[in-house]
Amino acid sequence: MSDRIREKLSILADAAKYDVSCSSSGGNRKNTDKGLGDSSNGICHTYTEDGRCVSLLKILLTNHCIYDCAFCVSRRSNDVQRAAFTVEEAVDLTMGFYRRNYIEGLFLSSGIFKDADFTMERLVRIVKKLRLEHKFNGYIHLKTIPGASPELLTEAGLYADRMSINLEMPTEAGLKLLAPEKSHEEVKKPLGFIQNSIVQYKDESKIIKRAPKFVPAGQSTQMVIGATPESDMEIMYSANQYYKDFDLKRVYYSGYIPISYDTRMPVIGSQPPLLRENRLYQTDWLMRFYGFDVKEILNLSNPNLDVDIDPKLSWALRNIEHFPVDVNTADYKMLLRIPGVGVGSAKKIWQARKFGRLRSDQLRKMGIAWNRAKHFIRCADSVMMLNDPNPFQIKNDILSQGDSKYTKVAQNQLALF
Amino acid sequence: MNAFVFDGTFEGLLTSIFETYEFKVKDVRLFDNLRYQPGLIDETHEVISDKAKSDRVWKAFVKKIGKQKAQNAYTVFLSEDAEAFQHIFDFIRYVFDSGEGAESNFGNPSVIAIHKWERSVSRERHRMKAFIRFEQMADGIYYAPIEPDFNVLPLIAGFFKNRYADQQWIIYDTKRKYGLFYDLENVTEIAFDFAENIESGTTPYLSKNLLDDKQELYGLLWNDYFRNTNIPARKNMKLHLRHVPKRYWKYLTEKKHN
Known about the structure:
The complex is a heterodimer of chains A (417) and B (258).
Chain A: H1 2-16, E1 46-47, E2 53-54, E3 56-60, H2 87-99, E4 105-109, H3 116-133, E5 139-143, H4 150-159, E6 162-164, H5 172-178, H6 184-207, E7 219-225, H7 232-246, E8 250-255, H8 274-289, H9 294-297, H10 311-318, E9 325-326, H11 332-335, H12 343-352, H13 360-365, H14 370-373, E10 377-378, H15 391-400
Chain B: E1 2-6, H1 10-22, E2 28-32, E3 43-46, H2 51-65, H3 67-77, H4 82-97, H5 109-131, E4 135-136, E5 142-146, H6 153-163, E6 169-173, E7 178-182, E8 187-190, H7 215-228, H8 237-243, H9 253-256
Parallel strand pairs in B: 1-2, 1-3, 5-6
Antiparallel strand pairs in B: 4-5, 6-7, 7-8
Helix pairs in contact in B: 1-2, 1-4, 2-3, 3-5, 4-5, 5-6
């Protein structure tokens, strides 16, 4: 018995791991009834050896699937071991792990067996049992199964904290190439339906006290990067559109890890595009927290992100006429655009300068990345500069810094030993 | 230079602040009595903790910058670090001696120092929320030994009480030799002097006969999960170690069987 459950967990955790979403924040579920658990800011309970956060028990209900998407390890035609949890097994694992403080909650996805409604109904049964029978208030991330009926989605939304449905490929053309049975339309429909319901329930809660929560942590999606030949611009424009249209909380970018001999995709053994993935996340952060418009970072003359420097530095070098910025007078928006200054340091500068003009030694102590920032700022003790800043020189200077994390060789090559 | 020697308690630290105003001295080095070595040139003053004095300082401090920000000073105190004690001392004096909003003058050395210390103690608090691993004992109680860098138990009691409201648990700091016990109603402070097998430096795990029948299986399942959710093609041990430093491995179930 115990061997069988261990085998199932191994298979169904392995099959679920290519979904990179790990967040467990934004739930804000309180433990009011002496039940088990709560959720608020999210905690990473451990990290795997690939450096990824483990916050939720991320499993598939089953890896049996009627679809044959070329990029997916659970595709119908792939020769892998198949397994399925019973509802009780999935519930017991979640409760047992949560009670021992291993996890923040459950991330439940599934291959499509039989049809969409049949699969979705099983998923809902698990989360319903956790919430109602076990008084479980931990975080639940539930996959939306494309094509599931609105009734089931509504029910799911009442128990889940977050729901997500993956675009899979950044563009419709890419998706059609690798998964002809699927389309982005099928993704937009449930995204839109759930988004409308979230808004409705929020409005209701303004009028009715104790209106039920509906997907309180919002929706997210994922795109696989590097399986199909989209440019960074196409990827980020698509992400931007989905953020806007569906008020998504997150778009995840998952570097494609070759798992198939299919000739349409990178061969097995080739490196996953880790650095590119990182640059895309940096761009995503600039859009969401730094007030950048995606068109400033990626456009027809710059359709791809630089490999050797981050997108914020890259933007600053292309727009050198905005620099140097005087940190003692610049507005907050401009402070945020200085390479080497993050949201935290920008806020500190903003507060501290009320007490007097800031010097470089004070700025360094606040935690700004001085090696980058120094080329772009003026402060109380800056010496006069005779020439305008030269972007080529600055770039060379930053790249030649011994402690710079940007080197001229792409870092996605792993060491052999 | 004046040397103030206090008893190492928060009350003593606040009393010291009171007495600098009482005796009208400014340039003060603060020492706790465990670490103090008399110097030749110092003028030494021994501070006797006084609840009335410390309460007055705390009330005035809270009134000046608000409860939440004042609490940061206490968080920093839990670092148990001599340098941090001095920063708290300087910070509170600076706040008293300056106009409104001085606590966010990040250009001031003691303000930025308190900010940084608060971040490190809070980071350790957060790590304990993440890294504590309960084992279910035969009597049903969930037990977790820890060895945090700072004395963070007071900062995590409420979190675990709210989260694990329907199970009895014990979190025991083996370094500082005290723990918290939740009995389904309240959290109380406890100290063991009998259980040798949980003392620091020896085996951190409870022996099998003390554990619930299902505990071992859940430990194994968690290990299975931890291994299978990893993507070997993305292996990045440097990042792994940065997030899970080795000193915490001893108590991590997922590292037990590896």
